[in-house]
Design goal:
Layout lengths: L2 H21 L7 H17 L23 E3 L9 E2 L2 H14 L7 E7 L2 E8 L2 E7 L5 E3 L2 H4 L17 H9 L19 E9 L2 H13 L8 H9 L4 H6 L3 E8 L8 H11 L8 E3 L2 H14 L7 E8 L2 H7 L9 E5 L4 E13 L4 E13 L2 E7 L3 H7 L6 E5 L7 E5 L26 E2 L6 E2 L7 H12 L11 H9 L14 H5 L6 H13 L5 H7 L7 H11 L2 H6 L2 H5 L6 H12 L1 H12 L8 H6 L8 E5 L7 H10 L3 E3 L8 E4 L5 H10 L2 E4 H7 L3
Parallel strand pairs: 2-11, 19-20, 19-21, 21-22
Antiparallel strand pairs: 1-6, 3-9, 3-10, 4-5, 4-7, 7-8, 10-11, 12-13, 12-15, 13-14, 13-18, 15-16, 17-18
Helix pairs in contact: 1-2, 13-14, 17-18
Bound molecules: 2-(butylsulfanyl)adenosine (IVH).
Length: 696
């Protein structure tokens, strides 16, 4: 066998093993054997760059290079469905279908409604050629490179591109497994061209593992698997996507030469071609059967490995679908029935109050433990004082708890079913901070009550230090919340400046085994002195000064001293800075305690001004210009262009308007942007012209 033949053989074999593992859940070889085949293929491909194939199983691990998404038009528009939350409307839908079909008999295909994001996969000659997100239904993002990393999506339905069909027969007839997907005979060959649509999602297990990792790294958590899947699929690095373990269920086959008139039958065929199609689809012949399906899954869905948010009902025959047609927005032949968010009823025992880093006080309901969406819930948020008052909440009340799209469960109502029972004392919102006793205050336009004792209230102090050391701020990664708690309790730190006074022996105490980690901590603190000014500014924890505001302020004022002196007018000169931010910064620098902190940080050698290097790279060449970026670039990534625009005093904006100064356009600029720019007579500048403009 030549090396070329071996490559083709390995690719086909690895595709088959992926399918066995990720679609059928029936691996036939061990992980080690799989890895060995993969390594062999990687080595051979390295020797034969001329045989590179984006659909090779080796490409599923992705790359760290930054990619840009190009917008493309869908071959067939991607419609959405009419939604309902009530069974009466399902009955009406059923009756409308019956009438629309003039009494003809029909079947309804009942399916789970997967809660992820929809994707359209386009295949030609059995190969995945493009994967596009829904976008606005007409155009979406080309996310093919990311989709290739999803192991359950077949990249090649056939190894036909390997050359002769004989190779294929050789490969698979001898091992008794039939062809690529274990079929002895191919009943429904795939059409030369087709689209298959479905949902990309993150299984619960991957989602929970991901959030555990993010928690450990002090990164913000994803609220639910859908957000996690969507954030992942939009990632610019395919390697990140590959690690996140997405999955995909396919539920709609489109094309001119489909195997059957029946939607259900087409999906069964697609399953036999290697696609992951849910095994929970059923054809119903009566409304009762439809309702039975809904009722069954309303509870049973809790045992599924992925999130679902309803049931989709589709008229099965495509001929009948055509007869029924469309409304302006959605097909008349389908409807989505959405489940109510899961609720549980339990008893309120006590309301406690939690003080956050900013001093905001959140009321928390402590309840009798209750099972909800797979976990036991004991605490739920009550949001704020207004919400508590609105509920007229009493201790001992039965309350309804819901886990919506957020991680933290919330109280939605008092359970009226128990309204006749005697009630305990009314829940009163506190007037003083539960942590430090300071009288609470309320700021104009905000629902929350705040503890104003910023420098003396423990959770605020600890929260500020946690923020200061966090990865995107000073990145002192050896200091987690528990260590900070420990140092705080031992009286070693009262604010973030104290970190720079810490000594190894203080941290380790008399305990020798702690010396190593203490040294590491001191080293990390030491190294943070080099963190650039804009991140120091972010680390200070000034209200409303997030990462990007900190960057803008650093670029405009260049040093902390200039910032401390700035007047309201100085701030308002800056495009993206409004009065709320300006006043918050001015306030912060009026506080003597803060000024003392800054002086101490200066003494410890922190960067309180832009570095010479950054300063020398700055210019005013784009001052006052609003610039739109569109398309794909050759010399720099889109993010780099954004940074360059800011570095030279310009402003990057998202959409074209009469105020746009010019469009920086790469390859494949979106046609709607192009049209708009032309209509408004706005200059379109290419990469080279732009680089010349800023003197690069
Ligand atoms: S069929 C014209 N089937 O729900 C039919 N959609 O608005 C188009 N979804 O955008 C969709 N599970 O993202 C269909 N079994 C299923 C589905 C499903 C989830 C999503 C899909 C669509 C939205 C409905």
């Amino acid at each position: 066998m030549t090396e070329q033949e071996r490559i083709m053989q390995l690719r086909a074999e690895l595709h088959r093993h992926n399918h066995n593992y990720y679609v059928l859940n029936q691996p036939t070889i061990s992980d080690q054997e799989f890895d060995a085949l993969m390594r062999e293929l990687q080595d051979l491909e390295a020797l034969h760059p001329e045989l590179a194939d984006p659909n090779s199983p080796t490409q599923r691990v992705g790359s760290d290079l930054s990619q840009e998404f190009v917008q493309v038009e869908h071959i067939r528009p991607m419609l959405s469905l009419a939604n309902t939350y009530n069974k009466e409307e399902v009955r009406e839908f059923y009756n409308r279908v019956r009438e629309g079909l003039g009494g003809e008999s029909f079947e309804i295909c009942c399916e789970l409604k997967f809660d992820g994001l929809s994707i359209s996969l386009h295949y030609e000659d059995g190969r995945l050629v493009r994967a596009v997100t829904r976008g606005d239904g007409v155009r979406g993002d080309d996310v093919t490179a990311n989709i290739r990393t999803i192991r359950s999506i077949p990249l090649n339905l056939t190894d036909a591109e390997a050359g002769s069909k004989d190779v294929r027969r050789d490969l698979f007839s001898t091992d008794g497994q039939g062809d690529l997907f274990g079929r002895a005979e191919q009943k429904n060959p795939w059409p030369r061209e087709f689209e298959i649509r479905g949902e990309v999602l993150m299984p619960w297990e991957s989602f929970e593992a991901l959030n555990r990792e993010r928690e450990a790294a002090e990164e913000p958590l994803f609220a639910n698997p859908r957000n996690a899947a969507s954030g992942t699929l939009k990632s610019k690095q395919t390697a990140v996507v590959a690690k996140r373990r997405l999955d995909a269920y396919l539920y709609y086959l489109l094309g001119d030469e489909l195997p059957s008139d029946g939607h259900f039958e087409n999906l069964e065929a697609a399953r036999s071609w290697g696609f992951k199609v849910s095994s929970h689809m059923r054809k119903a012949r009566s409304l009762d059967e439809v309702f039975a399906f809904i009722d069954y899954w309303d509870t049973e869905r809790k045992n599924l490995p992925v999130a679902t948010d309803g049931i989709v009902l589709k008229v099965n025959s495509q001929r009948q679908q055509q007869t029924l047609g469309m409304t302006a927005k959605s097909p008349r032949w389908a409807i989505a029935y959405k489940f109510q968010a899961e609720q549980a009823s339990t008893v309120l025992r006590e309301v406690t109050f939690q003080v956050g880093r900013t001093g905001a006080v959140t009321p928390v309901a402590n309840m009798d433990p209750v099972q909800l969406s797979g976990t036991v819930v004991r605490r739920a948020t009550l949001h704020n004082a207004d919400f508590v008052a609105q509920l007229d909440l009493h201790v001992g009340d039965h309350v309804l708890v819901e886990k919506g799209g957020e991680i933290i469960p919330k109280i939605v109502a008092v359970d009226e079913a128990f309204a006749h029972q005697p009630r305990g004392p009314k829940v009163e919102f506190i007037t003083c901070c539960p942590e430090c006793g300071a009288p609470l205050v309320r700021y104009e336009g905000e629902a929350a009550w705040y503890c104003p004792n910023e420098t003396g209230c423990p959770p605020q102090i600890k929260g500020r230090i946690e923020h200061f050391v966090s990865r995107r701020a000073m990145n002192i990664d050896t200091l987690g919340p528990e260590t900070i708690e420990d140092y705080f309790a031992r009286g070693l730190i009262r604010n973030y400046a104290d970190l720079y006074e810490l000594q190894v022996d203080q941290l380790s105490g008399a305990n020798d085994s702690r010396i190593r980690s203490a040294r590491k901590t001191i080293k990390a603190i030491d190294e943070s002195r080099q963190v650039p000014f804009e991140r120091v500014l972010f680390a200070l924890g000034i209200r409303f000064v997030g990462e990007s505001v900190a960057k803008t302020l650093a670029r405009n004022f260049k040093s902390i001293d200039a910032l401390a002196q700035a007047t309201l007018d100085d701030f308002l000169q800056i495009n993206s800075i409004g009065t709320a931010i300006a006043e918050s910064v001015i306030q912060w620098f009026r506080n003597e305690d803060n000024l003392r902190l800054v002086e101490r940080l200066r003494g410890y050698g922190l960067q309180l001004q832009l570095s010479e290097e950054t300063l020398s790279q700055q210019s005013d060449r784009l001052a006052g210009k609003s610039i739109v970026i569109s398309g794909v670039f050759a010399h720099h990534s889109r993010d780099e262009y954004k940074a360059l625009i800011e570095q030279h005093g310009g402003k990057n904006v998202g959409s074209i308007s009469a105020k746009t100064s010019f469009v920086l356009a790469g390859e494949n600029m979106g046609p709607s942007k192009l049209e708009k720019a032309q209509k408004l007579g706005i200059d379109i500048i290419d990469e080279d012209q732009f680089l010349q403009m800023i003197g690069e």
